[in-house]
């Protein structure tokens, strides 16, 4: 998920996407020799992974004082490897050019495994200082490689050679991806245009990093501390979690609602205190939009302007046109067309949901109209009224540990994987909350890889949930096994008590595990085959959410945290009956962000003032006033803190069309969601292949046809028009 199509600089680009050097010339004198070995011994961040399971990251030895030197040395070593490729007098071929590039940069890749931990799991002011200094240098390093004309000439020669026809299908695709990554990233430019392209990359990288850090600053700065008389409506588990959070912030005896989604969402759902709900809502949705040093409005304008200038150098009319060219959507018109097919039904459903909520308010004799900070609270009341479904009652059956066991069960049935905890202390971890499991094939006992889990929120950890790898499966240079990781921000239960989560959080838990299974099931040979197509890579994870509602999971793993009793059948029936409840809200808040992303990147940046643009465009769309974008502009990290999802946030819905269609394939199968034949096709064509095949072709092999949007409409309970 973190690999980028720019295969030559995948590790370095990962940094910019996650925001994610001395004189680095293409003729660096460093070589991989005894000097390098010495450097590796001196700097743990450069050293090859050692220990069991094919080697593991030395998380117990990582120190920020080593980071800058490791980055600089890693970049220098990779440039030396590039020089070796360029200086090879033999005619360019697949082995001495493409394979050599696949091997280049292994030292730097390891450094970025640690960089990712500091950036996402252990962020600090000290790290941000290093990040601010090094990101522009990393961008310059990237440009040095993509701007290397002799290297591009060799890649182009292989891509246009007769040899290409004799290569395997994966080798042909790796060659195309390599060539395309050069061509789409400035390699065809010359002179001043090439220099300007590199300068823009460097400036954008710094701005994106600052954007992400501003969000984190506001998330850490704003905390609402409550007293016991302000807890009305909150469940025992929520109160316990808030008390635990306050204790961690040095306010024992009080209750903390932090400025994160995992804390904000349940508070807005259950708190009876309307004024406090409004305060929490406004604080959360005003992140990086407070007119202070952490305000992101000007950064948005600068980032959009520079991105637009950069793609203009390549001959594109707008950034979206460039970004979507090699994705399933192909162009912004196709992406927007999908949005427009679903948007009218979504906002119409919001009107229905608001009417139901307003009826409750009116019946209570209250004299206010539903506001955004009321939506979750009154939606919960409608849920209870319409479906007799209490989300907090459901939560009592959603224990984090039991859900993890359920995920392992699903992985065993579909992928034939077995998860076993590694002995305590045998694998280094970067925080005491992190646990590790070994993954094996259940039949052969073959070692597949390791799975790291970092489930709880804490200071310095970025919000949300994500998956990544510290090493991917490859075989081209000796077999490498997988080191995969899932990361969440659940609010930890009090000492001795289980962590209980919401149904939405349980779906997210399964979702991110889907990414891990995508990593673990890989059967490809080359690193570049792991590069993601953004409107496809969310499909596998979205699909895995469907197994949460299978009978096998519900009946065996959803048990009450106090009594151990399985979740009652009537409560399960209510959950399934309410499956499309509040779908208007969920679809509209997501789609508003996805549409705005496309609009930001297809509009002349000179005409954009972010707050005005956001308001005007949403008004033109008919955005319900009771709902806001899931990610408002100044906190839209997917789009402005990296280029991972920039002009590509629509991809979640594109992938959901695939998800809904694939789920119907399982539903129609004799064995249902555990059907062996459909499961095998799923693994063979949609999980193990990664990006070694065009995703559209891979999906046709699985389904026998293209996916249909009607499946998505049925899933969400929206009208299906013929």
TrEMBL record:
InterPro entries: M3A_DCP, MetalloPept_cat_dom_sf, Neurolysin/TOP_dom2, Neurolysin/TOP_N, OpdA_N, Pept_M3A_M3B, Pept_M3A_M3B_dom. PROSITE patterns: PROKAR_LIPOPROTEIN (PS51257). It catalyses: Hydrolysis of oligopeptides, with broad specificity. Gly or Ala commonly occur as P1 or P1' residues, but more distant residues are also important, as is shown by the fact that Z-Gly-Pro-Gly-|-Gly-Pro-Ala is cleaved, but not Z-(Gly)(5). One of its GO terms (cellular component) is cytosol. It is an enzyme of class 3 (hydrolase). Its EC number is 3.4.24.70. Residues 267-716 form the Peptidase M3A/M3B catalytic domain. GO terms for molecular function: carboxypeptidase activity; metal ion binding; metalloendopeptidase activity. Residues 1-21 form the signal peptide. Residues 79-194 form the Oligopeptidase A N-terminal domain. Its cofactor is Zn(2+). Coiled coil: none annotated. It holds the Pfam family TOP_N. Keywords: Carboxypeptidase, Hydrolase, Metal-binding, Metalloprotease, Protease, Signal, Zinc. GO terms for biological process: proteolysis. Belongs to the peptidase M3 family. This is oligopeptidase A. It comes from Paraglaciecola arctica BSs20135.
């Amino acid at each position: 998920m973190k690999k980028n199509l720019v295969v030559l600089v995948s590790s370095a680009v990962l940094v910019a996407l996650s925001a994610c050097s001395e004189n680095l010339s293409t003729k660096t004198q460093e070589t991989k020799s005894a000097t390098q070995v010495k450097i590796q011994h001196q700097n743990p961040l450069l050293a090859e992974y050692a220990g069991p399971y094919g080697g593991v990251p030395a998380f117990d030895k990582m120190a920020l004082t080593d980071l800058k030197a490791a980055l600089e040395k890693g970049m220098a070593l990779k440039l030396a490897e590039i020089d070796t490729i360029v200086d090879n007098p033999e005619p360019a071929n697949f082995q001495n050019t493409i394979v050599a590039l696949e091997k280049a940069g292994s030292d730097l890749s390891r450094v970025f495994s640690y960089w990712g931990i500091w950036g996402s799991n252990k962020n600090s002011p000290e790290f941000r200082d290093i990040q601010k200094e090094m990101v522009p240098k990393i961008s310059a390093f990237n440009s040095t490689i993509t701007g290397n004309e002799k290297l591009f000439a060799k890649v182009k020669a292989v891509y246009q050679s007769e040899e290409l026809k004799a290569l395997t299908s994966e080798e042909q695709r790796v060659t195309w991806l390599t060539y395309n990554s050069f061509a789409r990233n400035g390699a065809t430019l010359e002179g001043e245009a090439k220099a300007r392209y590199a300068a823009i990359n460097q400036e954008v990288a710094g701005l994106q990093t600052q954007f992400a850090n501003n969000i984190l600053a506001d998330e850490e700065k704003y905390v609402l501390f409550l007293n016991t008389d302000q807890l009305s409506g909150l469940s025992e588990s929520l109160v316990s979690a808030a008390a635990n959070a306050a204790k961690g912030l040095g306010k024992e005896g009080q209750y903390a609602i932090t400025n994160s989604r995992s804390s904000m969402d349940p508070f807005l759902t259950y708190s009876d205190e309307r004024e406090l709900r409004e305060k929490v809502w406004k604080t959360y949705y005003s992140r990086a939009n407070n007119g202070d040093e952490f305000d992101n409005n000007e950064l948005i304008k600068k980032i959009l302007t520079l991105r637009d200038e950069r793609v203009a150098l390549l001959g594109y009319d707008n950034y979206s046109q460039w970004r979507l060219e090699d994705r399933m959507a192909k162009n912004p018109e196709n992406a927007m067309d999908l949005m427009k097919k679903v948007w009218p039904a979504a906002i119409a459903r919001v009107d229905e949901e608001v009417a139901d909520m307003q009826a409750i308010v009116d019946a209570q004799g209250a004299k206010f109209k539903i506001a955004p900070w009321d939506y979750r609270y009154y939606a919960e009341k409608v849920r209870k009224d319409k479906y007799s479904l209490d989300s907090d009652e459901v939560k009592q059956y959603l224990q984090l540990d039991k859900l993890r066991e359920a995920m392992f069960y699903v992985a065993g049935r579909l992928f034939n994987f077995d998860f076993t905890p590694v002995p305590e202390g045998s694998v280094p971890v970067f925080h005491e909350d992190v646990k590790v499991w070994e993954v094996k094939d259940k039949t052969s006992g073959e070692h597949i890889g390791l799975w790291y889990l970092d489930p709880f929120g804490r200071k310095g950890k970025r919000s949300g949930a994500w998956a990544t790898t510290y090493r991917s499966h490859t075989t081209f240079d000796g077999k490498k096994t997988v080191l995969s990781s899932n990361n969440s921000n659940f609010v930890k239960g009090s000492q001795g008590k289980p962590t209980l989560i919401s149904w939405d959080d349980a779906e997210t838990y399964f979702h991110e595990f889907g990414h891990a299974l995508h990593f673990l099931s890989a059967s490809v040979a080359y690193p570049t085959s792991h590069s993601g197509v953004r409107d496809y890579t969310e499909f596998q994870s979205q699909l895995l959410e469907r197994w949460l509602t299978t009978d096998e999971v519900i009946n065996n793993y959803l048990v009450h945290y106090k009594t151990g009793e399985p979740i009652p059948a009537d409560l399960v029936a209510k959950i399934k009956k309410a499956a499309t409840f509040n779908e208007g809200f969920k679809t509209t808040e997501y789609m508003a962000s996805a549409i705005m992303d496309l609009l930001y990147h297809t509009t002349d940046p000179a005409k954009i003032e972010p707050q005005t643009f956001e308001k005007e465009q949403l008004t033109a769309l008919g955005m319900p006033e009771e709902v806001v974008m899931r990610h408002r502009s100044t906190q839209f990290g997917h789009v402005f803190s990296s280029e991972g999802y920039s002009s590509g946030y629509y991809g979640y819905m594109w992938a959901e069309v695939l998800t809904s269609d694939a789920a119907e394939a399982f539903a129609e199968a004799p064995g249902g969601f555990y059907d062996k034949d459909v499961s095998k096709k799923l693994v063979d064509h949609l999980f193990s292949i990664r990006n070694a095949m065009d995703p559209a072709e891979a999906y046709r092999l699985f389904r026998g046809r293209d996916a249909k949007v009607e499946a998505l409409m049925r899933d969400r309970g929206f009208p299906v028009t013929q």
